[in-house]
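Continuing the batch. This is chain 6 of the set; chains 1 through 5 are on the previous pages. Same settings as before, nothing changed between runs. Recording input and output for traceability.
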Amino acid sequence: MPVFNRIFLFILLMGGYCALLGCRHVPFYRMTDKAVESLEYSRQGVCAYEHGDYDVAEKQFQAALERNESNLEVCRYYAETLWIKGKHQASIDFLMNAVQKKGTKENEILLKQSLGEKLLLCGSASGAYECAEKILELSPQNPDAWFLRAEALHKSGQFEEALLDYQKSLYYSPGDPKILQEIIVVQNRLKNYEGALAACQSMERNHSVNLSTGMLLAKAEAYQGINQWDEARETLLTAMRQEPDCPQIYRQIAELGLLTGNIQESLAASQRALELVPGDARSLAIQQRIQQIQMAGLSTTIQR
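Output for chain 6:
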């Protein structure tokens, strides 16, 4: 072997040996030990989470994050655990901090999605909208982000803008029944009852599935909007057979009874709704209206 090659090989070997010795004295190895411990705690946390033992899960995720706070997947699990345990504000506060951290694109999106959904549930439509916007910057074709933005607009009463975003979400997730249901609902809000019914019929025809209770309620509302009372009632009865303990069904039957002059049907339905949800404001309002109608009728009879 030529002398130059031997010298080069010697330098290469010595450089590698020195680098190996040097690395043992930098914090990387200590961090690796912590990372291994963090992974073990997170594994135990996920196991407890999946078995519904959320107290144990919370402790294990805390231990994992103490050793590696940058693991976004553990951050998301920890926030979900807090939320399930009813610590809603703590969950949101934690997520607000966690979304500032860097990680894989997928984990960053999932974390922002989780925060947006929770903000929406807590009444912060603007916060949810902002989260959706940040996700769309990372993933413009993300159907969940378009849906989240649509939900935020819907909650804010911006129905036309919400409809456009729901349709965009449906474009990237064709046939998704969750999205179709919201499209039907927002069409009703816009008083485009024919459009709502067309969406229902398209769902039934193209996907060969039974409509969910939510879709049946929206379909009944659309029928009611174009004064097709019999079709509305039949749709609500179908929903009742499908989910007999849904209070919204009875509220809508009670309201339909008022519109069509079927006071007994309205009274029975509102009473059933109150059995399912004691003190329900809408049902109480319906009963108050029924009493006013009955008193008016009694007064007319007395005058005669």
